[in-house]
Backbone:
């Protein structure tokens, strides 16, 4: 068969497939709408932490639960996990560096690819793209916003003079979320401190110690000392731009990552300084000091996905997470469930899209670790972060393909809300929904980066 005929047949097959998928889609959506009409849409207020959603269907689908979803099927044994040593992380692994990067830090090796791509004129890797990406990190890398010490902005002495702020824990929960919203958080929750989710030591081996002998956060040459009285964690989400993720895995796509890491620093840094001004201790955190995903789950902001990331009911996986540990009395939020883990059992889209095959394709979670950087003991889907990071390096420093593929990253339309609502109540349509996600053109990452710079229109911040 010659190439022209083969292409023609491929195009016909593609049209046939999409046509069938669209019919199935409307059939499924009709069923979903019927389910909604029969009583799914009964609540108008969201029960998950943070900002109100306009979708009654999604609001109803999100249910408070007594245990964090990582303790519920299909997951198990989270209590077996030990506090993680940051030095084991793929980013800092000496073993991985020697095996794949010639002993260099991964970002040094990635820079070689960036320079190569720039010289070859690869779309999405121009000097403009890389300057755009680098500058996006300015607030995260170029400021002291994650300092454990007061920044000198809030008037700390004022609270010492008039006394600490006093309100009920429930009032403080409401106030904190209003402040977080103004400081740029897309959604905010509060968790009770679980020391299990804090690092045991940093990448150089300095330990994090919860201390009864310290009244303020203290960093010495020997250790990071955290007062035991600091027992609440404020968790804030920085939603990434899913339209930028469509340019994955290029440097252009990574610009939204840098932008939201900067937003993390600004939200956490400002929140910490605000709390200090009320007379209380605060430690702002990005990816340092503690894990982010399990704390966000504890704070009622989502579930654990197949790709090891947080899945939020509105933003999906397109979020970055910052935290503030404090002793301000705040009522915690309850964890939530909306069917994400069950959907992940069927979906597989992130695993199928992953170019390095780093994400498990097993239907059910297991205790089988994927690489030496995993923290063993829990039943979950383990991600091979070594092959993932190696793919990052070969991409020039990032990827984002699994984020772009996630079906929970969707425009806010009634049909997508129906799908989310139905998938939270039944698994019957999960396979169909995942298939139709591709057929209708979502979950792709095939945009030409030249379109971004050549178009007269700006890329919308959210669908």
Residues:
């Amino acid at each position: 068969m010659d190439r022209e005929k083969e292409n023609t047949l491929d195009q016909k097959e593609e049209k046939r497939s999409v046509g069938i998928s669209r019919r199935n889609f409307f059939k499924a959506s009709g069923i979903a709408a019927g389910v909604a009409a029969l009583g799914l849409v009964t609540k108008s207020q969201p029960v998950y932490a943070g900002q109100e959603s306009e979708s009654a269907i999604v609001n109803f689908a999100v249910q408070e639960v007594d245990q964090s979803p990582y303790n519920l099927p299909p997951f198990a044994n989270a209590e077996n996990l030990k506090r993680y040593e940051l030095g084991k992380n793929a980013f800092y692994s000496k073993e991985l560096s020697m095996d794949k990067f010639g002993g260099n830090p991964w970002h040094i090796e990635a820079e070689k690819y960036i320079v190569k791509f720039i010289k070859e004129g690869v779309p999405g890797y121009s000097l403009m793209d890389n300057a755009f990406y680098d500058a996006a990190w300015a607030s995260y890398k170029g400021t002291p916003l994650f300092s454990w010490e007061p920044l000198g902005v809030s008037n700390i002495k004022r609270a010492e003079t008039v006394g600490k702020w006093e309100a009920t824990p429930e009032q403080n929960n409401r106030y904190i979320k209003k402040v977080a919203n103004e400081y740029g958080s897309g959604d905010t929750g509060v968790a009770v401190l679980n020391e299990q989710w804090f690092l045991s030591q940093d990448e150089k081996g300095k330990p994090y110690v919860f201390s009864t002998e310290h009244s303020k956060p203290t960093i010495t040459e020997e250790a990071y000392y955290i007062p035991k009285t600091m027992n609440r964690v404020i968790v804030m989400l920085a939603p990434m731009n899913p339209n930028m993720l469509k340019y994955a895995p290029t440097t252009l796509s990574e610009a939204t990552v840098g932008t939201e890491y900067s937003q993390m620093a600004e939200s956490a840094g400002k929140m910490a300084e605000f709390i200090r001004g009320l007379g209380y201790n605060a430690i702002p955190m990005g990816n340092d000091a503690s894990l982010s995903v399990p704390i966000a789950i504890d704070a009622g902001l989502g579930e654990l996905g197949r790709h090891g990331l947080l899945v939020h009911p509105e933003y999906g996986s397109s979020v970055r997470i910052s935290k503030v540990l404090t002793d301000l009395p705040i009522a915690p939020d309850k964890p939530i469930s909306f069917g994400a883990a069950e959907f992940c059992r069927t979906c597989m889209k992130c695993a199928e899209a992953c170019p390095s095959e780093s994400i498990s394709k097993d239907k059910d979670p297991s205790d089988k670790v994927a690489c030496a950087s995993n923290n063993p003991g829990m039943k979950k889907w383990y991600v091979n972060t070594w092959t993932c990071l190696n793919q990052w390096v070969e991409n020039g420093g990032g990827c984002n393909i699994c984020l772009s593929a996630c079906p929970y990253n969707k425009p806010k339309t009634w049909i997508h809300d129906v799908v989310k609502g139905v998938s939270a109540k039944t698994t019957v349509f999960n396979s169909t929904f995942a298939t139709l996600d591709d057929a209708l053109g979502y979950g792709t990452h095939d945009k030409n980066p030249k379109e971004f710079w050549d178009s007269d229109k700006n890329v919308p911040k959210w669908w």
